[in-house]
Amino acid sequence: MDMMDIWWSSKDSAHPLYDREFVRNREREKTIKKEEERKTLGDGLRDRFDATLDVLSSIIVLWRYSNAAAVHSAHREYIACVVLGIVFCLSSLCILGKAIHDLATRVPPEVDDFLFSVSIVSGLTCALLAVAKFMLGRVLTSRALITDGFNSLVGAIMGFSILISAEVFKHHTDVWFLDGTMGVVIGLIILAYGVKLLKDMVPRVRQTRNYERFE
């Protein structure tokens, strides 16, 4: 019970109608606060899980080239691509879940100064990483590196998309759904890419397992 509740309970209630209205307003405020806390917790869990998947995709690429003998290992290449395909599918579920939730609850894009700075830095960093991974992947003819570059490219697009959506919403409040819609589109693209990767690479893992020693 907070100080306002104590004050009101100690006050002589000479106006029962006003008393009931006050209680309803207090209950409404508490309900809204609880919903905001649940939303913040859910967004935090989804963001941490998605960040974990991004780190995992980088770890699997590092494992792919962890020693000199592994550079020319087709088996490792295919295994890395399979794991990346799984990561893409899981990441797409996180993105789709958040986007659909935002659309269903009509959550507008909100960007404060801190989020603006983080989005700019994240977008630029992911864009540079994507270019570097694409170039290195072409030199090494590594689909795993190119796939990880695609993952970084998606991170750059998502970093800038929230800024674009917030700017559009600032001038056109009826376009509150832009960020959620972009999230759904990005999530579906990632899911399709992940499924295609699994479809292409799982048979190759089975083929190379018999004649190439796994290290």
UniProtKB/TrEMBL annotation:
The chain crosses the membrane at residues 78-99, 114-136, 148-169, 175-195. It is a multi-pass membrane protein. It comes from the Eukaryota. GO terms for molecular function: zinc ion binding. Signal peptide: none annotated. It is found in: Cytoplasmic vesicle, Secretory vesicle, Synaptic vesicle membrane; Early endosome membrane. Keywords: Cytoplasmic vesicle, Endosome, Membrane, Synapse, Transmembrane, Transmembrane helix, Zinc. InterPro entries: Cation_efflux_TMD_sf (IPR027469), Tmem163 (IPR026765). GO terms for cellular component: early endosome membrane; synaptic vesicle membrane. Belongs to the TMEM163 family. PANTHER family: TRANSMEMBRANE PROTEIN 163. This is Transmembrane protein 163. The lineage of its organism: Eukaryota, Metazoa, Chordata, Craniata, Vertebrata.
